[in-house]
Automatic annotation (TrEMBL):
Residues 14-163 form the MobA-like NTP transferase domain. GO terms for molecular function: nucleotidyltransferase activity. PANTHER family: MOLYBDENUM COFACTOR GUANYLYLTRANSFERASE (PTHR19136:SF81). This is NTP transferase domain-containing protein. It comes from Actinomadura rudentiformis. The keyword Transferase applies. It comes from the Bacteria. Keywords: Transferase. Residues 181-201 are annotated as: Disordered. Pfam families: NTP_transf_3 (PF12804).
Amino acid sequence: MATAEPFDGEPFDAVVLAGGQARRMGGADKPGERVGGRALIARVADAAGAARRLVIVGPPRPEPERAVFVREEPPGAGPVPALRAGLSEVSAPWVALLAGDLPFLRTDDVALLLAAARDANADGAVLLDDGGREQWLAGCWRTEGLRRALDAYEGASLRGLLGPLGPVRVTVRAGERPPWYDCDTPGELGHADRLAGPAGP
């Protein structure tokens, strides 16, 4: 388990991928679905609240107000093209790369990822779930290293792009609301809503 002091170093931006087609949710506007009374995308934006700039790759929406919205071309082309589009708006030395459907991700989790990468002098850090699997859309990266990797990469897999960067693998004590929990189905969304409660954090 990686441990680190809270991140207080160089500034970071955040890129949130929120443009998927949500096929397993019947094509619903997944980032706009509500957990604990708040849209998923708003909850993720809160987790990235310390970011200097918040870039959301997906259709424009009223919230969060401070976000810059961009689209991959063509829309729905996949996570690697979406990352390319989002990274074009990043200028900070570090970038948090996050999914738009993580209702229980916290500011502390993002800070831990940034600090773990910095302390290890690594190009990035990625969150592990309770099965030890990397959650590639819950990580933080050195911007220049990520740009170089993207320039040289011709594949379509985030694992194929990010794995060779040798990120620090970070585990956290999750409890019943793990930060890697994502909402890919109506059942998962309903479960998250029950865990969060009517005004959950």
